[in-house]
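Incident review: delayed structure delivery

Summary: a single-chain prediction request sat in the queue longer than the usual turnaround. Root cause was a stuck worker, restarted by the on-call engineer. No data loss occurred. The affected request and its eventual output are reproduced below so the record is complete for anyone auditing the incident later.

Affected input:
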Amino acid sequence: MADNREAIRSDLHIFLDGAKGKEDEDQVARTRQEAKKIKGFCKVCIHSSESNRGLSKSILAGIQYINTISSSWIVVEDDLELSKYFLEFINDGLQCYLDEPAVATIHGYVYPTAKKLPDTYFLKGADCWGWGSWNRAWKVFEADGRRLLSSLQNHPELKKFTFKGNAPFLGMLKDQIEGKNDSWAIRWYASTFLAGMYTLYPGKSLVRNIGLDSTGTHCDTNNTYEVRLAEKKIFVSRMPIMENPLGREAFEIFFRERRLTNNKNPFSWFLRGK
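Output delivered after worker restart:
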């Protein structure tokens, strides 16, 4: 991220989890040493946990802490590669929609859809691969999956939540409730969807996940989400906060095609935090 244009004006907070067991202690120690070498930011703060929280608890604890020192923030996990225009896009979006309560997040990743997408567009809910948000939006986060499920099952737009049944998000929430996964992401998506909030997406992806090659803890090998990073700045300007029908259709087609081809678990990314 240090090669992003706005990195030098940004404070970087790195949250490092503890080892699961003795077999992981050496790798954790090496990671902490590498973190100390990071430069290119206004300030680098390292937060190390002595115990192993797991991804979900680490993310939630990190956001809770950042909320005490900043009104807006950007979340990037360690297996994401970023376009050099990523920070500009997220920061521009955070500033543009700062006081707009209907906007939940500014998101950097976009699926490799076959359809050409607008430069920027809104979709209902939230996402989890390289994103920025505000204290005011995070207040809607509901940690209790049972409450979320109860509200969704009676929701008039349930089909929209699952992209017409093509994305198994309802099942993922049920699995979270049953302890089969501990995904913070499915709860964040459900929370913002139920609150009637929206996410701003770029037309071309500013984020690429490099943890889907079986080296990542929570995902198997999968090229379903492989994208080419945007090579030029994506401009953000105010526009009506409503779903873009082209974006909605493109996502529905993407999910449907992946469901039909169904390679192992094409939605395992949403279980992050298990």
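Verification: The two ends are 26 Å apart (CA to CA).
Action items: add queue-age alerting; document worker restart procedure.
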